[in-house]
Automatic annotation (TrEMBL):
Membrane topology recorded in Swiss-Prot or TrEMBL: Multi-pass membrane protein
Keywords: Cell membrane, Membrane, Transmembrane, Transmembrane helix, Transport
Keyword Metal-binding assigned: no
Location within or outside the cell: Cell membrane
GO molecular function: antiporter activity; xenobiotic transmembrane transporter activity
Listed GO CC annotations: plasma membrane
Main location per the UniProt record: membrane
One Pfam family matching this protein: MatE
Transmembrane segments: 7-28, 48-69, 76-97, 103-127, 192-211, 232-256, 268-288, 300-320, 326-348
Protein name per the record: Na+-driven multidrug efflux pump
Amino acid sequence: MIKKSVAGSIVIGIGLTLVIMLISVIFLYPLLTLLHTPANIIDEAYSYISVVTIFVGVMFAYNLCAGLLRAIGNSVMPLVFLIISSIINVILDLLFITQFQMGVQGAAIATVIAQGISVFLCMIYIYQKTPILIPQKQHFTFDQELYKELLGQGFSMGFMMSIVSAGTVILQSSINGFGYLIIAGHGTARKLNSFCMMPAGTVGLALSTFVSQNKGANQKQRILDGVKLGNLIACGWGIIITVILFFLAPILVQFISGSTEPTIIDNASLYLRINAPFYAVLGILLNLRNSLQGLGMKIIPLVSSVIECLGKVIFVALFIPILGYFGVIICEPVIWCCMCLQLAYSFYHNPYIHQKAA
């Protein structure tokens, strides 16, 4: 059954990858225009995003391989391959941008190559160490119930991410109106933001596998204990990163952006310092959402994404025109709090969990 599930995931993933590539080729530039991307950066934005979307299959392959390894309890090797990929990415960024003068397109190519190397390493490891994950020709036969379940779970998570991305796109359209300096500062802050949130995201992903495994073994108390520990880790990391960014945000922004422009440094630093105290909330949010997915819930995590998207629409329409870039800064922390409340209620009132807690 494992090999048949892997085969189904490969088939579905290839199909969706081809659809994404086709859509990006047709609609990418019009979408950038629709988002009011400044004329002086739209070509560079297109050159970067087009490379990444054309090779989106590489990203799919890594996520599939890493997800398969985590599903059988091996969370160490995907992390090792990710670290190797990140180091290679940084080296290639410096080489392509500073030596070959390839600009932002060079950064995109570096990302694709680094991810490709990570995929190659994952596949070698799976071939040598976990042959149970390698499907054979007979495993690619169509199984209606299996494909229905895979598509149900996949589209649930896919729609969730799509709704989140749609909200981010709407928010970005508002940011684009502040000019290229604010865009550059916000982009730098978002990169640092993503890096700082990695521990929280990693714990959340681990909980998804942990919860599903323990539900299968009917170990309800272990699920509760695991989620509790994950939330404590999120709070601890939130405190640590808040202190770090309070003191070092300007230095980190200058290092990442390579700019000494006060507008870039000041706005990016303010963004990081205000967002940092809410990383704990985000960590708990991700823990609960991934845990609900581990319990087999498809709709409830989707509802949280709808809340996020609607929240960003409201901020773009009502608050950002009044508050300016400060409205952008506080947008996500406010939404995270609302989402966290909804997910906490849904998780602890889940019939499977609530029965144990009672």
